[in-house]
Specification:
Elements (H helix, E strand, L loop, with lengths): L1 E3 L2 E11 L2 E17 L2 E17 L2 E6 L4 E8 L2 E5 L6 E7 L4 E3 L4 E6 L3 E6 L4 E9 L2 E3 L1
Parallel strand pairs: 1-3, 2-3, 3-4, 4-5, 4-6, 5-7, 6-12, 7-13, 8-12, 9-13
Antiparallel strand pairs: 8-11, 10-11
Length: about 140
């Protein structure tokens, strides 16, 4: 499934297998649930995004500050990139593979281990939750 320039108040996508790609759109609430496949979001403006993938890679790029995001995969890597480094965000990131990389400035950690990173940037008004049972997690 490949969607470009989508505009919707709410969008829910469910897939058993296959890749899901969204680019250059605006969606108020976005939910993607797939059993197997790659999920790619590029420059999609959204207030709330939830992506769950049983097996496969997840890549979110161009997220705007203030987006609430929840991302999880049973097996696969997760990459999350903000349009500009977040200035106001609370986050909780976990990886069963103990391979997490946070590439932000001005981070205040409450937990900072190879398997779990929790903390805030600024006042913590936005929210990011990431969970990978097995896979590398990179946020920038």
């Amino acid at each position: 499934l490949d969607l470009t320039k989508v505009s919707a108040e709410r969008l829910s996508i469910s897939s058993k297998e296959g890749d899901v790609r969204l680019s250059a759109g605006t969606v108020g609430d976005l939910k993607i649930d797939t059993s197997s496949g790659y999920v790619t979001l590029k420059d999609v403006e959204t207030e709330n995004v939830a992506v769950a993938c049983g097996s496969g890679e997840i890549s979110l790029s161009g997220l705007k500050e203030g987006t609430d995001a929840e991302v999880s995969t049973g097996s696969g890597d997760i990459s999350i990139g903000y349009e500009r480094g977040p200035g106001d965000l609370s986050f909780e990131i976990a990886s069963g593979s103990e391979d997490i990389s946070v590439k932000w400035e001005n981070v205040s950690y409450t937990t900072d281990t190879p398997a779990c990173k929790k903390g805030v940037v600024g006042d913590g008004r936005g929210r990011l939750r990431v969970d990978s049972d097995s896979g590398t997690v990179v946020v920038r």
